[in-house]
Amino acid sequence: MRLLIPALLIALGMASTAYAKVKDPAHEITSQIICPCSCGEVLSGCTCETGKSMQAVVENGIRAGKDKKAIVNALVAQYGEVIRGAPKPEGFNLIVWIAPFAATLLGFLIAFLVLKRWVRLRALTLAVPGPSRTLTFPSGRALGADLQSLRDRAEAELRELKRTR
Amino acid sequence: MSELGRLALLLGFACSLFAVGSIAWGLRTGLSGPLRSGRRAVWSVCGLALLAMILLERALLSRDMSYRYVAEHTSKDLPLHYAFTSLWAGQEGSLLLWLLILSAYGSAFLFAYRKRLDPFYDAVAMVVASVMVFFTGLLSFVCSPFRILATPPPDGMGLNPLLQDPGMMIHPPILYTGYVGFIIPFGFAIAVLLTNRSGTRWIEEVRRWTLFCWAFLGVGILLGARWAYIELGWGGYWGWDPVENASLMPWLVGTAFLHSVMIEQRRGMLKTWNIVLIVLTFQLSIFGTFLTRSGVLTSVHSFAESNIGPWFLGFILFSSTAAVALILYRKALLESENRMEAIVSREGSFLFNNVLFVALTFATFLGTTFPVLSEAVTGTKISVSAPFFNRVNVPIALALLLLTGAGPVLSWKRATASVLQRNFILPLFMGTLALLIALPFGVTGVYPLVCIFAAAFVTTTIVMEFARGVQARKGLETGALPNQVAQLVRKNKRRYGGYIIHGGMVILFVGVLGSSVFQKEAHGPLRNGEALKIGDYSLTLRGVTEQQKENAVLTTAVLDVNRGGKFVGTEHPAKALYLKSQQPMTEVALHVTPAEDLYMILGGVNEDGTTSIQAYINPLVSFVWVGGLVMLLGTLIALSDKMRLRREEKEAA
């Protein structure tokens, strides 16, 4: 079984080589632009008339040797910011770029602090000798199971009562 | 008949209200009569919703144009099977389907627990009935599917051509079964809070219900991706469209819950967090419906837009506020029973995995809603689409993939240095080996490399877990290795079902990596006999035909496909012009092999007589579908594990 994994990986690696590095400069632009008509598709895959004319603008611009940024800016000037697939990271839009990563880091920090606190609390409890240990952390799980067991018994008895009636 | 339909919905509304009131009264007084009546009322709503649906289907199939809904979504030339499925083409019909599935869940729940006299289950039914009040109310007073036109048109407007696809016949009902199903876990969570009862039994039950609807939602998402791949004709299957995102979000939070619930079951911890995740999952499934139906965001999947957005928003605000208030009120009930022994443990890794799932959901939520927020603040219209999500969500998803491998090989409570060494050295070695193999082959970019490393890392951990299991049972099981593995899975379906799901996830990630990073594209105008080259393929145009179909004119290009100079087949990409809407639709041609898809689109016939052909090579795209199927298989295996419930029931008896 251990031989299977390297074999699979080699196959994957070989498959990868056949495809690596195939994007053209026009695609780099069109994959970042949204068609402004109601179709809302990414320009590289758009087949509507507006999309086709914009794809032609990009390809002509690339053929004429224009800078990619200049081509994008010209399209934005014509159709508005709405055609950028990802908003420019400036001003208010910075929120959408920063918040997900900030939230992830904050989440990790909170999770770490909570875990640390729980570990510390447990250590403190274990350090307390004698019966207070059991008082501090009664076995709620066992208690829950007992309650559930009693509840189920009561249910069964009720059912029995109903049946005999 | 429309009056009967309206009456059915109105009675459904009354029954839902009665169910809520009656069960609430029964719970308060302890009387069994009101509880019984409430349960019967829930059953009645299901019957009434079914009646309403049959009546609407009857109108759709007979093309009764006096119904506004029928006139708006069908036409006389629409094939019968699409007339049937046009029930969920519009808003009112979709909401009726929602109601039917919701009430069916309520009834199935009551049937499953019919022998339990515990009022706890009535409290769950009451929550389901409360949501039914909202939907029957909407359908009765805001957007009835039984509205009649004063002067019926001679023919209808027809069905949106995008929906005239076999995939659309099953995708929405399956997706809705997933979405709506989260009502049961939500009901359990609220019932725990209302009845002030905790314990471990409900959490096992809720896990099974969640797994069930999570699987349906997953299959629904995958079918949606398949539909987009075949029907939208842009070469891909996932465009981070708002409606796609709306279905992904509850699935992500549901996945987080399915992991963290294990900690509650084993260690009696994270009770509040689990309740929060359940509430969030349900709210996000309602939010998904809100996004699809409100028209607040533009989407290729948004087929019905109207003014019901504020109602949904109000419902989300009300139900989430009530849930949060209840959580705060029952804070003491949700206290952890145990404390963590070490940060480096399976519990710790599950907590970090939860952070990543929620972060991914947050990033998706923010990106999806940001255009509305930005326009409100700055006044400028912006888009947040695939280029954004690929940059923000992909790194978080890759971190998740890495944790998928790490979590299961860490021990519960505390992972010692020797455990870490024993469990991580081989996966790390295999991950590095994969990188070393990939690098000289020209694979570049951080994300593809991390994905390759993570895929090898996770696969190794899964294989190791299976190998260990087989080793441990060596004396107990006989036969060949596959037989031993099958026995192992049978003995602990839940655990190994989970590993199979992880394996499916790895396959899916590899598929996404292959089809996105290594995609090839070519397009060009062709004359008869000319060829378009893409990779090893050569597509030669043999001609263009035009054919009148039932409700569309189909223009088809005939392409001879050669690979490496060898003829492999004739393909027929087409463009359908739907007569009613005059909307052109792409009919993609696919040449599928296990390693790649050759994806062909007919752009159209140009004025100069040439034919525009667009082609993509999508490597490993079949891995996406296979990965999804493997995940479904793992879920079915995990769902079939009734051992724990049986054991608990035995103990209780």
Keywords:
heterodimer; A: 165 residues; mainly alpha; Helicase, Ruva Protein, domain 3; 2 domains; 7 helices; elongated; disordered N terminus; B: 653 residues; alpha+beta; Four Helix Bundle (Hemerythrin (Met), subunit A); six-stranded antiparallel β-sheet; four-stranded antiparallel β-sheet; 20 helices; globular
The largest inter-chain interface, given as chain pair and residues per side, is: A-B, 82 and 97 residues
Q: Regarding CATH, which class of one domain in chain B?
A: Mainly Alpha
Number of discrete domains of chain A: 2
At CATH level 3, the topology of one domain in chain B is: Four Helix Bundle (Hemerythrin (Met), subunit A)
Summarize the model shown.
With 165 residues, chain A is mainly alpha-helical. Chain A has 7 helices and no strands. In chain B, strands 2, 3, 4, 5, 6 and 7 form a 6-stranded antiparallel beta sheet that branches. In chain B, strands 1-10-9-8 form a 4-stranded antiparallel beta sheet, with helices on one face.
Structure description:
- The complex is a heterodimer of chains A (165) and B (653).
- Chain A is an all-alpha fold and 165 residues long.
- Chain A folds into 2 domains: 4-86, Helicase, Ruva Protein, domain 3; 99-164, no CATH class.
- Chain A has 7 helices and no strands.
- In chain A, α3 (49-63) packs antiparallel against α4.
- Chain A is elongated, with a radius of gyration of 32 Å.
- Mean pLDDT of chain A is 74; it is low at 1-22 and 131-140.
- Chain B has 653 residues and is of the alpha+beta class.
- Among the domains of chain B are: 1-164, Four Helix Bundle (Hemerythrin (Met), subunit A) (Up-down Bundle); 416-518 and 623-639, no CATH class; 520-619.
- Chain B contains 20 helices and 10 strands.
- In chain B, the strands form 2 sheets. In chain B, strands 2, 3, 4, 5, 6 and 7 form a 6-stranded antiparallel β-sheet that branches. A 4-stranded antiparallel β-sheet of chain B has the order 1-10-9-8, covered by helices on one side.
- In chain B, β6 and β7 (583-587) form a beta hairpin.
- In chain B, α13 runs antiparallel to α14 (386-409) and α15 packs across α16 (446-472).
- The longest helix of chain B has 33 residues, at 346-378.
- Chain B is globular.
- Chain B starts with a helix and ends with a helix.
- Classes of the chains: A mainly alpha (165), B alpha+beta (653).
